[in-house]
Specification:
15 strands; Outer membrane phospholipase (ompla), Chain C; mainly beta; twelve-stranded antiparallel barrel; two-stranded antiparallel ribbon
Length: 275
């Protein structure tokens, strides 16, 4: 009987400690999105300063489960579900939708905090499919705009992003292996690097200037460098919920799958909500 009581007490202690370490649906993300990476969860718009095009992002990443190994070490498991959409501007506040890309998948994160720094890694397993939409179809002439017909574009990939953060500067490198893609001649290995830097406390705790840069090497008709720059201000929590306004510059292949071989080079003004 004494052994049984001791065993019950021991199991109860293990369960209580485990409950302290596990979080279900935590309020924040263990690893915040990389600011200048073009394929991240966003809720907002990117308005090009020239030309007739804008991008609408609707989506989110959510940590479903977090395990706190210690006060300075955590592991997370979550899900990604978002879209990024290509629109055109017309009169009377009309925005025909040219194309939309859908992403959904799973992610895993690991973070180890040190005295003034931290290192971590994010692993994503995702699917993307792309589609032309009715705004791309000229109903008057009964034809697709610029004779660009709908085509199959989809990819499934594994993405590995280790990073190191010192104070408010985070640098990272990434590798993406596309294990299935249509059309099949597109290269399956992407290499990536970048940083984001938040100037916390320069103005006050609510307003935070930031700068971010990302470069991705893709293999579409040969190796191409996609460059993405964000410079702006975030209102709210620097590494949590808030609202951002920023200047965005992009140069490289189109982020939209239906236009994957098209070269893009533009400046834009972005607006984003971190929810």
């Amino acid at each position: 009987m004494k052994k049984l009581v001791l065993l019950i007490l021991l199991l109860s202690n293990v369960i209580v400690n485990a409950q302290d370490k596990f979080e279900i649906f935590p309020d924040d993300l263990l690893i915040q999105p990389f600011s200048a990476n073009t394929i991240e969860p966003k809720m907002g718009f990117v308005f090009q300063t020239s030309g007739n095009e804008l991008r609408l992002d609707i989506g989110n990443s959510l940590d479903l489960l977090r395990y706190n190994v210690s006060e300075k070490e955590s592991i997370s498991f979550g899900a990604d579900l978002f879209t990024y959409t290509k629109l055109r501007k017309e009169g009377d506040f009309h925005f025909p939708v040219d194309a939309v890309d859908y992403l959904f998948g799973l992610n895993w994160g690991y973070v180890k905090k040190l005295d003034n720094s931290e290192f971590g890694v994010r692993l994503r397993f995702s699917h993307i499919s792309a589609h032309l939409v009715d705004g791309r179809y000229d109903k008057k002439n009964m034809e697709w705009v610029e004779e660009h017909l709908p085509r199959v574009y989809s990819r499934e990939f594994i993405e590995f992003f280790p990073y190191y953060k010192f104070n408010n500067l985070r640098v990272y490198a990434g590798y993406t292996y596309i294990y299935h893609i249509d059309p099949g001649y597109i290269g399956k290995n992407n290499y990536q690097a970048g940083f984001d830097y938040y100037l916390c406390g320069v103005i006050n705790s609510f307003i935070t200037p930031f700068a971010a840069y990302d470069i991705k090497i893709v293999d579409i008709d040969g190796k191409t460098a996609n460059n993405s720059i964000n410079i702006g201000v975030k209102f709210g929590k620097p590494f949590g919920k808030g609202f951002s306004v920023y200047y965005h510059y992009y140069s490289g292949k189109s982020v939209h799958g239906e236009f994957y071989e098209f070269k893009k080079d533009y400046s834009a003004i972005g607006v984003n909500f971190d929810l």
